[in-house]
Amino acid sequence: MRLILASASPRRLSLLGQIGVVPDAVDPADCDETPRKAELPKAYAARVAADKAAMVMDRHPGALILSGDTVVAVGRRILPKTESEDEARACLALLSGRRHQVLSAITLIDGDGRARHRLSTNIVIFKRLDPMEIDRYIASDEWRGKAGGYAIQGKAAGLIRTIQGSHSAIMGLPLYETRTLLKAAGYPLD
Question: How far is it, in rounded angstroms, from Cα 97 to Cα 82?
C-alpha cells in the first residue's frame, strides 16, 4: 500500500515520522489557496485540503493520498500565510493578547478513490506582545510562509500563553486524526 504525501511542508513530513510513517513519495499539489468570497475558515481549510488531495490522486492511481491545510483565524477572518514583514507584523499585532483558532484539516483518499476528511480545531492565546517582541520575532524570519505569521514549534512558543487542542495540529498535521484515518484505510501502523 503506497502512501503519497500531497504537501511540500517539511513539518508535515517530520510529524508523520513521529508516528512511524514514511510516505513512499512527496508530491505537492499546486492549487489556488485564495479564500472564496464569504468563505468561513473551517470550510476553507477543509476545501483546500480536499482540493490538494484530489489534484494529486490522478498522478498516483491506487495509492493512499494524504493532504492537509492549516488555517489561522480570528473570528471569521482567515489570516494569510505571510510573505512580507509588513504582513507578518500585522498578523502578530492582531494576535497580540487575543484568542484565535488554528484549524488543521486533512484529507485521505484511499486506493478506491474514497475521500475521508477530518478537521482539528484548536485555540491559541498569545501574550500581549510589545513592539520590541514583535520586532525580534520578525528578525528571526520564522514567520515567512507561516499561516498567521508564526510557527509554534520555534521562538513563538515563548510568546504563547495558552493552547487548547493538538500541538501537532497547530504545527500543521493533527497526528491523532491522521493516524485514525490511516488505520481506517488499512495502512500498516504499529
Answer: 19
